[in-house]
Structure formats: structure tokens, C-alpha cells
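S.,

Sequence below, as promised.
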Amino acid sequence: MNYLNAAPMEFGRLLLTGFLALCVLGVSGKEVQRSAPCKFPAIYNFGDSNSDTGGISAAFDPIIAPYGDSFFHKPAGRDSDGRVLIDFIAEHLRLPYLSAYLNSLGTSYQHGANFATGGSTIRRQNETIFENGISPFSLDIQIVQFLQFKARTADLYNQAKTRNNLPRPQDFSKALYTFDIGQNDLSAGFRKMSFDQLRAALPDIVNQLATAVQRIYQQGGRTFWIHNTGPIGCLPLNFFYNHNPPPGYLDQQGCVKGQNDMAVEFNKQLKDRVIKLRAELPEAAITYVDLYAAKYGLISNAKNEGFVDPLKVCCGYHVNYDHVWCGSKAIVNGSEVYGASCANPSQYVSWDGVHYSQAANQWFANHILNGSLSDPPIPIIQACQRH
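The prediction came back faster than expected:
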């Protein structure tokens, strides 16, 4: 029997209206709370060159022009022609760009700090930065730096006459903690291990990232935004010295299939570990972000999105087997050659063969910050909500 039809029309209208109101508001207002935006006072970022905003440049030789030209009009410690992904995250959350923890001049840490450095890995590598560009600031060291930063902040805040450049101690528990690291663990593995050896090492690499999250949680951190690793096999660097790959070596987009398969396996294990972390850290809100899908999506559809061939490089001189890196000079066939920028960086996916252009980084941001590639599928402005 249809009780709405049997009841007077006005009663039915009121009942239906009340039901719809419950659907919108949720029982006890839970849906309202869930949809409310988070107010992050700060961002603390851990990672590699994909999110470095000046760390490695402060610690070692500074990044040179034409890096930074498209936005900052000068080198800004970033491995791009302009902004990197963490810059777009900060903009989206209406926070200032993050100062690198290692940068001693012109810095403000009131709204967070960036511990990422170019060349960083999750696991410590037994080599120096002067050999293969691997940073000494692996993820465990970045966490040690954060712990020291947090402890010293509390001490200085209590005695400082001016606090303009210091975060408020109570903001650490309300901050957003972002991770974008793991690519260099894979690249080091491809260089030093067989595929089977690297595959066997993946659980330990992923567990060390989980340990970093646990240590921040123990210090009061509650909101985590974790990027998976990108399609490393699509970096144009792979083809600088390999002009004639054998059959089956490349996938349908012209990327190195074996390397991308390893990245996919890393990401699968990372996602599984994030799910376990949610059970282990019951007060944490942990978002897993499929950045691989965003990056491979652009590479697969670059021309339709207004970009040139995604395997072409904007900055540097790369002709046959002669390579002059972006911003560098070298003698090629008796003449000095400069690794210059292309005229239109905004049309390129790859900036220098390893790192993405500002335009690509902005495209990635537009496709991940709305939550469409996240687990759970929530936008970053609601990442503090547990699901």
C-alpha cells in the first residue's frame, strides 16, 4: 500500500520535504560536517625534485637559469621553468609558497615548510650526490629534520619577541602533510639491480614511507595527502642514449614498458599499505592520490590537450648522442653549445628530460586536487575528513 497517496496531500508534501532535508543534512549533521572545507594553516611537504622548492639548491650548487623563467623570471630552486605541483597545491589552499627547510635566507615558515630535495629517495642509497645525483636527504632524514623543526619551533615561539616567520605550535596537528617520493628509488634500482631484485625490495621501500607517516602521526599530524609515483618509463631521458629500442621494449605511448610496470607495482603496494595505515592510525585522514594516472593521462593525450609530443624536451641540447643539459654549456664538434630553453615552454610536457614543465604541473594539479583520482575520492580541501 502507498501510504503517501493514502495520506492527505499536505501531509505527503511535508513528509517528503522532511525526508529530503534529512538526505541533505544527514543524521546528526554528519553530511554537513563531511562536506565542510578544511582550514589548513600550514603544509609540510616531503619528497624529491618533483616538489623541491629550493632545498637541494640551498645545500649544493644552486639551480641556474633558464630554470624558473616562465613564472619567477629567475631561478627559484625548482626543477622546472616555473612552478611545481606543491606550488599549485599551496595556491589552491590559499597558502604562501613553501620555503625550503634548508634555505637560510628570505624564508618564512609561518604556514609550513618543505623538506623535499631534488634526488631524494625513500631508502638511503649508498652513494653521493656527485655520482648519480642522489640526495643525502632521504625520507628518514627529512623526518628527522621535521622533528627538529617542530621541537625548535615550540622553544623559539615561547621566547620570541617576533613570531612572524614561525608556525604556531598548535597548527602542527591541523596542518596538511604531503608526500611525493619514490621515483628515485626506482631509478636507482634500475641502475643497480635486476628487475627481480628491485621488485623484491618494493615492500621495504613502501614500509619505510609508512614509517615516516607513523612518526608524524606520533607527533600529532592527522591529515596526509600521499602521491603515488609517476610513469618513470615516459621520461625522455630514457631515450637520450637508446635510439633503437628492441621490439616489445616500449608500450603504446612509446614509454619504457618494464619501468612503467615497476612503477605500477610500486603504486599497488603503496595503496595497499595506505589502507593498512588507516587501520593502524585511527585518528588519521589519509588520502592516496593516483598521480600516475594524471601524468600518464596527459602523456597519452598530449596533442589533444594542446601540448607537443610528450617525449620531446623543451630545455637542453639533445642531438643524436650529444647532450648538453638545460642551462649548461659544452663543446660539441669543436663549438660551444648552450642548453637553451625552447621558445614556448607552455606547450611542452617535459621541461628538461627528467622534470615536468610548469604547464604540465598545472595540468596535473587540475586533475588531482578535485579528488577524482584520489582514494577516498575527496578534494584536497576536504582531506581532513576521515572516511
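The radius of gyration is 23 Å.

Coffee later?
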